[in-house]
Amino acid sequence: xxxxxxxxxxxxxxxxxxxxxxxxxxxxxxxxxxxxxxxxxxxxxxxxxxxxxxxxxxxxxxxxxxxxxxxxxxxxxxxxxxxxxxxxxxxxxxxxxxxxxxxxxxxxxxxxxxxxxxxxxxxxxxxxxxxxxxxxxxxxxxxxxxxxxxxxxxxxxxxxxxxxxxxxxxxxxxxxxxxxxxxxxxxxxxxxxxxxxxxxxx
Length: 202
Ligand SMILES: CC(C)(COP(=O)(O)OP(=O)(O)OC[C@H]1O[C@@H](n2cnc3c(N)ncnc32)[C@H](O)[C@@H]1OP(=O)(O)O)[C@@H](O)C(=O)NCCC(=O)NCCS
What we know:
The protein has 202 residues and is α+β, with helices and mostly antiparallel strands. The protein has a single domain (7-189), classed as CATH 3.90.470.20. The chain is 27% helix and 29% strand. It has helices spanning 19-22, 26-47, 102-107, 110-113, 120-137; strands at residues 9-10, 13-16, 70-75, 79-85, 90-95, 148-155, 158-163, 166-175, 178-184, 188-189. A 5-stranded antiparallel sheet has the order 5-9-8-7-6, covered by helices on one side. A 3-stranded antiparallel sheet has the order 2-4-3. It has a two-stranded parallel ribbon with strand order 1-10. A hairpin with a 3-residue loop joins β3 and β4 (79-85). It is globular and about 40 Å long. The chain binds coenzyme A (COA). Coenzyme A binds at residues 34, 37, 57, 60-63, 73-75, 92, 103, 106-107, 128, 132, 135-136, 139-142.
């Protein structure tokens, strides 16, 4: 059965980077993480009843639909993430770790900061992953950052953003010291995280 026409749920998949890869560096590591993230996107498509074919990006690095399915990936040293669905979407994952205070003003303006009363660094990572997920969904990447705004913080796992007039729902999930975010057209999520993760890689 093909869920594409009536898709109401996304199945983002997070995979742990195998211990053997944690010490790899440079291009070898980047390529391996890219491949693993694509495996996560393929799993996500299968869980949604679809099948990704060749995964190709355009000249701006934007993933192109495959077999009619949109897909998005993210990779960090210890975890990769992938999602696929019938409409444009974006995914990001970030390790929760100390960052320079200069980034606080870069990621959101005072009006956006006033939307939440959570710990400022927790909110920072929520804003960051949410905006990167939206910026991938619209195919802009970081160069669209100033046009991407948080409108509401709906609950501890969901916020609403806008990019040039279009509304995006971002769902978030935190495990293993990482925060993941998926931007979509308001679909609900069934997250798939690794159950255990015991490496010292993060
Ligand atoms: C797209 C962008 C957001 C990627 O972020 P990143 O953290 O470097 O990398 P991620 O692992 O999250 O995502 C990488 C994937 O994004 C995808 N991607 C890249 N550009 C994209 C674009 N314009 N639109 C959609 N997806 C894009 C690619 O599929 C890439 O994976 P691949 O190379 O294996 O194909 C990019 O604009 C960027 O350079 N970000 C820098 C992060 C940063 O400094 N953030 C600070 C916030 S204050």
